[in-house]
Design goal:
By secondary structure, the chain is mainly alpha-helical. The protein has helices at 21-29, 55-59, 67-73, 76-82, 100-114, 122-144, 150-175, 183-198, 202-214, 254-261, 263-271, 274-286, 295-314, 319-331, 334-342, 357-364, 375-378, 384-389, 398-411, 421-445, and strands at residues 18-19, 34-37, 40-43, 87-91, 242-243, 248-249, 366-369, 417-420. The protein folds into 2 domains: 10-97, Cytochrome b5-like heme/steroid binding domain (Flavocytochrome B2, Chain A, domain 1, Roll), CATH 3.10.120.10; 98-455, no CATH class.
């Protein structure tokens, strides 16, 4: 009988097929999408294109035991009520084995639920909403009603970057269903916030980010580290890798060789322009062919962003001020892009990792230590190890679970990467510099065949 959890409906009852690992592997090679969850085998071939989290998040799990990843990203009602419809059998008894780490991770997840760590303190988000509303009103008010002086305009632009910085954190929480814990409700909240206030696409981010969480720091698969031609955190990018996310080759061409050889010098400068790239990626996503969840809502809210931002610019005296306002407000979001890259750029880049879900998170992710009074500035991104292990956990509880995660890592002889803000920057820059120097070494061999000499 195929069922998960407490509910076993008529649709959950299937023929009692028994699968060996080899049989699952063979069927995956033939094009089927089979995954293992709690020793049950599920056929997601017809569902993959309808998955709210995107097709690639499932595709990367094909043929594998996805138990920990599914538990991390889905509430119990999804696993208990929806998953049984796709169950086609059970894993052979002699193939049913979970590592000590995996079992410990599941016990910890259950413990955190029992302790109420998954419960949202809604006053936290009321405060966040009030804070963002106040910043937005001040941003608009300084330009529309404030003194006509460059300092007033600069203050408004800085408030704009602060607004986008803080809104991104709440949109991130919503994208992980970490607010109401209802995927649809949180997605609509996130779009109304992130798309309207920031002009970006939460749908694009979610499609990108779900893949990132499943294959963290895998050069060929993780879009969060695929920034050619500007950055490379591994010499594997010298090999003209094919990106399974972007569906194209990441060429190690002359432009890439130039930028990457200087990436440790250009790192902060390039990050200053990151927001402009997000506009392009967001619009490319919502206007693409194929399924885009909440397409109309996304486009509407993104258009409404420009409907308030462009009129705001019209209040500035001339084009000189308008260009300066755009540049200052957008470039000062550099701190958000820096916080995102600090979490992974200095960590191990794994190619086709075979680690357990928890081990992958611990090996490829870095925490940034900060005092509690600076939590507002980092917005949960300082606890990325905890977040990667428990992505649906509300942001305000991440600090509380840190001792549990430290113990999990210690008990299983796994690293727990955690550095202060300055040290974490140094770690990332050291990786970028190391790769940059290897570009130069490769080019000294033969620039025409640089990728062939990559390590």
């Amino acid at each position: 009988m195929c069922h998960t959890g407490k509910t076993a409906t008529a649709t959950a009852v299937r023929r009692h097929a028994i699968f060996t690992r080899k049989e699952i592997e063979d069927r995956v090679k033939q094009g089927e999408i089979l995954v293992i969850i709690n020793t049950k085998v599920y056929n997601l071939t017809k569902f993959i294109n309808h998955h709210p989290g995107g097709d690639l998040a499932i595709w990367h799990m094909a043929g594998k035991d996805a138990t920990d990843a599914v538990l991390a990203y889905h509430p119990e009602q999804v696993i208990e009520k929806r998953m049984p419809h796709f169950c086609i059998g059970e894993l052979a008894p002699n193939a049913q084995h979970a590592s000590k780490l995996s079992l410990a991770y599941r016990r910890l997840d259950a413990k955190l639920k029992a302790e109420g760590m998954y419960e949202t303190q809604y006053w936290f988000y009321v405060r966040e909403a009030a804070k963002m509303l106040a910043i937005w009103v001040a941003m608009l008010g300084l330009v529309v009603w404030g003194p006509q002086h460059w300092m007033t305009y600069a203050a408004s632009a800085l408030l704009g970057s602060t607004l986008w910085h803080q809104a991104a954190f709440v949109a991130h929480d919503a994208g992980h269903s970490g607010i109401t814990h209802d995927a649809k409700t949180d997605m609509i909240l996130g779009i109304c916030l992130g798309n309207f206030l920031g002009g970006l696409s939460l749908g694009w981010w979610k499609h990108n980010h779900n893949v990132h969480h499943i294959v963290t720091n895998d050069p060929a698969h993780d879009p969060d580290i695929q920034h050619m031609p500007f950055f490379a955190i591994s010499t594997k990018f010298f090999q003209n890798l094919y990106s399974t996310y972007y569906k194209r080759v990441l060429n190690f061409d002359s432009a890439a060789q130039f930028f990457i050889s200087l990436q440790h010098h250009l790192f902060y400068i390039i990050l200053c322009f990151g927001r402009f790239n997000l506009y392009v990626l967001g619009w490319s996503y919502v206007l693409r062919k194929g399924p885009v969840p909440y397409r109309k809502l996304e486009i509407t809210c993104m258009a409404l962003f420009w409907a308030w931002f462009i009129p705001l610019l019209s209040y500035l005296p001339n084009w000189k001020y308008r260009v300066a306002y755009i540049l200052l407000s957008h470039m000062m979001t550099v701190f958000l892009h820096l916080q995102i890259t600090l979490s992974h750029f200095g960590m191990e880049a794994q190619e086709n990792p075979q680690d357990d879900f928890a081990a992958m998170a611990l090996k490829t992710t870095m925490d940034v230590e900060c005092p509690i009074w600076m939590d507002w500035f980092h917005g949960g991104l300082q606890f990325q190890v905890e977040h990667h292990l428990f992505p649906r956990l509300p942001r305000h509880n991440l600090r509380k679970i840190r001792p549990h995660v430290l113990k999990l890592a210690k008990d299983h002889d796994l690293p727990f990467h955690s550095y202060g803000f300055v040290k974490s920057n140094q770690v990332v820059l050291a990786v970028l510099q190391s790769v940059a120097h290897q570009v130069r070494a490769v080019l000294r061999v033969d620039p025409r065949t640089a990728h062939a000499h990559a390590l």
